[in-house]
Batch of 4 targets.
Target 1
Amino acid sequence: MLQKAAVAKQKAFAGDEYTDFNLTFSLEDSFSVELKLCEKWVKKWQKRTEMNLPPLIFHEI
């Protein structure tokens, strides 16, 4: 739900300049995120949770 709220905030800020591609993960300008960047976000999240999860790549989620 947090990601959905972040996208709504970006849409409101950009107004007519926002092109909605209906993506779950996107850059602030609404365009798609490179896979490597998503993997980086997942790895940072895994470290933050401290749940000792096995390493995952983005497509395994």
Target 2
Amino acid sequence: MIEYRPLDEDHRKAFSEYVGYGFTPESGPVDFDPTEDDHERMQLGARRGLFDTESAADDPLVVCLHHWFDALVRGDHHPSPGLSMVASPPEHRRKGYVEELLARSLAEYRDRGDRFSLLWPFRYRFYRQFGWETASARHAYTCEPSALSFARDRLDEAGSFRPVEAEEYERLASVYDAMAGRYALSIDRSDDWWTHRIFTGWDDDPYAYVWERGGEPRGYLVYFVEGSWGDRSMRVRDLAFRDTEALLALCAYLANHDSQISELSFTLPTDVPLRDLATDPEELDCELSNGPMVRLVDAHETLPALSYPAADEESVTLAVEDPLVDWHDDPLRLVVADGTPTCERVPGADPDLSLDVGTLSQVVVGYRTASDLARLGRLDAPDDVVATLDRLFPRDQPYVDTGF
């Protein structure tokens, strides 16, 4: 019999070894260090595992970590766990244990009343088969510091930078919240997340600087400097800004490291026109990369919990194809009247359209509209049904810059 349950003190070693082998096999077997496992970073999240109750050994077959996040969807924060650290030793692979772990995790989320699941995949196609889908995109920039020197010429002297310690994280959090409020799926960071993940590194802690104007935090950078003299790089872990002026201030700050740093790397939302601001955009290497994946936990519970445009009554009946759980077996009828939604299961009803749970997830969070997906051949429905979905779920701008 397979059992899903929390990992306890006796499983710390197995969790560490599974994760180490799963994500850094090139490091070779590493002896378990309980002191390292006691690090505050490692205490964030809830550890879970699958166990064979008929085995004499009480070692898990596969493990994972749940972060109890809230994420912004349709203007409101909804409980949206972050799933990470899915790992198993090679002797337990290709036996369906990861699939079982994912299904049991979703059942736990459903029992908790969670609405969405987020994860950063090691491979998108692996998790797509279980119902998760790409939820956002971002621009990853690489450049020399001098490529950002244009910002110095456009910035006045009214603001100033200063270093920030972990106990002052709330000054950064106010900027983060202001920027995150503009993007769907942004994660509401906890105090512990700021202290132990943003301001804390594995070996060395990062630098953190805030740009203030009139005593008010307007932008910030959290970054690491790596390498040695002549070949140093700066990797920006986290940044946020309230407006274009603050973005220019951050760019000017980075440009001022041209005597120390050979290369910068940072990410921005796709709607931030950095290349349009630059004097020579060809000096900015820009790669479009995928963000995390998203999945509805239970559409019947999630759809009526969302905010909708206030309009005349709209209704649609959906058949949701789900490869992992059975609570989407019956069609759902969503009705929205004057912005107030209701959703009911309608066994045996003829749906207006059938779609997989990953496709529905993309529509719901605003990453793709129904019209987008119809053009891509991923959604087959009459034009009036597509138009109804477009009105209920207009396009949004998802962006997740919190790694987990």
Target 3
Amino acid sequence: MPDALPRGSVAMALAAAAGVALAAAEPLTWWGWLCVIVIWVAVAWLFAAARHGQAADAVEADARTASAPAAAGPALPDEEADERMRFIAAAGHDLRQPLQAISLFAATLNTHDLPPPARQIGHNLEASAEALSTLFEEVMALARLSADREYFAERPVSLRALLSAAVANHLDDAHDHGLHLRHVDTRLRVLADEPQLARALDRLIAHAVAVSEGGGVLVGCRAREGRVLIQVWDTGEGIPESQLAHLFEPFSPYGKRFDDRALGLVMAFRIARRMGGELTVRSVPGKGSVFSLSLPRVARASQ
């Protein structure tokens, strides 16, 4: 009998042997013998199935071994991260519902006349739910992008209106931080998906405003050998050199200080890459950083 014969087959074989012993000790009627024969047939079928399964497993294992690359190893970290993001994107609807319920309950609780300690707890609960919701939406947006569930259609995009609108969206936030936020007018055009580029630029400006303390944030463009650099300058404390290498990875050590865990930078980086561009950063500790989003340049129609 094969070593790998399933335990169920062994049990059936023992049952058949017991049936034969019973038949020898006590004469059986025709239906009793029929039962014994059925048991024998079942045992024979299970035995054949077990042997066939072992042979199929061996063939499949040999095929996997033959087709696998010689240097194949565990999945790369980026591949593993993308796989997790695909799972999150698929579960997004089910995850969003309880989060929305928590936010609704917290907001409803704060409409009641509560004692001061309970009122403070209610406000803290609502603030925590809002922060969690912000982080959740960033995670979901990144998950959809990683799972290729975002639509991209590159076409010529004028940067003049795009930069103006992006800066206008953050003027109030910059004012609250005591910052001067401005952009340099431009007539340059790039090949990009306009909504996705607007999203990436929004994340970069939001990050610049969040890290800057005094001074200001400047947004501008430069033409470089058939490409355009869309740059966002901040006057923050800079990014430690030890953290630059992992800056555009989800949940990097640099992101711990931000409500969105710096996932906005990861989003901007991946959007740029999906459009055939690149996002880079230069930072000087104590002076600030500049993020440069490079995209193909499109000549003006009059040229």
Target 4
Amino acid sequence: MSHSSVVFITGATSGFGRACAERFADAGWALVLTGRREERLASLKASLESRVPVHTATLDVRERDSVAEVVASLPEAFRAVKVLVNNAGLALGAGPAQEADLDDWQTVIDTNITGLVNVTRTLLPTLIEVGRGAAIINVSSTAALWPYPGSHVYGASKAFVNQFSYNLRCDLKGTGVRVTDVAPGMSETEFTLVRMKGDQSAHDKLYGGVEPIQPEDVAEQVFHAATLPAHLNINRLEIMPVCQSWGGLTVDRD
């Protein structure tokens, strides 16, 4: 594959984002990698640039002006972004809504919704110009459709991602740009460590005795959706580990 194929990945410093960078690099794509942790970006670039062209930019997707600046300043070889992987996102806290920190809620909303919207809107003209075969892959969650205690704003933010993806498809009809909502279930990444603010015991308890999704599993599905024949679109791809299923409805009894 020629280096004219460029993928732009947000939240590339860990988890799904890093695994996606590796997967697209394996296929010879040029990479635009963004994230908030500059040292991790530098390390990732060093590990990949012997294989493919890599451009990195330290970026907080919540900051609209910063997103615009990063996109406007892309080097010529990286301007024709063919695939956008909107991966940056997080959850904070796992307690009930009535105990949640409102600042945590705002951070989740600003990152999972505002950040995704900022990057998508800024890159839409480029993706439309590329046209047939271009793709937007939004990393959502099974929490978008399946509620659970403590999900509250996180699940709601991912429901936004789901509906935003569907509605983008309507607006992009005729442009050739595909849109896919990739929705993983229980996945072993830094997600729980971030959610529980560094509590390693919470991470270990969640993943103890189970075989969760790995970042490489999700990256493979993202790559698959992004590189389908140009006339095909996966609208939503929900992935769970075999060990995870639905728990049914609960009833509070006196």
